[in-house]
Amino acid sequence: MTLLDRTTTDANVEEHLEANVDEGELKILADQALEARKLIIDMAASERGCHLGGSLSVLDILISAFYTTSNDSDSRVVLSKGHAAAGLYAALHVTGQLKANPAEHYGQVGHPFTGHPGPKVPGVTFPTGSLGHGVPYAAGWALAQRLAGTSGRGIAIAGDGELQEGLVWETIQVAAAQRLANFTIVVDVNGGQNDGLVADISPLENLTERFTAFGFTTVETDGHDHESLIHALQTSTSQPLAILARTVKGKGLKPVEGKAGSHYVSIDAARAAKWKRVVR
């Protein structure tokens, strides 16, 4: 079975490793994702609410990236779309990197679980939130690991709306020039951003071809399929890697799936309980 929908620049792909994820492990990842989605709903029911739609869309990417790097202390996963912090905290908790339940103290004074992540949170190396900045952090980490002689990777997870930031493309150019084969950018292509649809504000036509033209190996895949995501993350190439992960804003929660209004949500406890019964 072909797991990846499309891979470009095949001549530069040295090897597509098998995902090596058995059914039992995939079941664990699916259970983690469901638990994390409930935590995100709890954070939406906090006093301050949270970026619900983007947190739910990026969640499976985060869980797959953490799975891929779980035995690699030299690699870092950087959530560049830092406003989806609720998704990051939930993913860190269900994968065992964060012991405290973030939903119990999300947005509260005196606790590290702020609306944008910072390094006081276990598992977070770089503060992010100002869009575009997490991508060069991850590229810089990758370059540092290469200079240090380790096999560590820098994996940036960005939003599609975030690609409107010029800093992203400056970093892409540098990563290609340096042939940073240990740098990966995963784009959460959910089609939405703060003020509406990406297609209405600044369309991303021919995105695969754009990354390829910069000198990246580019893979398109289902951003909610853990096996496909892990397989894509394990692509071995002599060039930097771009993974375009198609996702659904608000994934798993029918009342908000695909709706621009899910970008930032504040709900009461009763609605949270109702949503947690139907989330999948």
From TrEMBL:
Residues 36-276 form the Transketolase N-terminal domain. SUPFAM superfamilies: Thiamin diphosphate-binding fold (THDP-binding). Keywords: Thiamine pyrophosphate. Pfam families: Transketolase_N (PF00456). The keyword Disulfide bond does not apply. The keyword Manganese does not apply. It comes from the Bacteria. Its cofactor is thiamine diphosphate. GO terms for molecular function: magnesium ion binding. Belongs to the transketolase family. PANTHER family: TRANSKETOLASE N-TERMINAL SECTION-RELATED (PTHR47514:SF1). This is Transketolase. It comes from Natronoglycomyces albus.
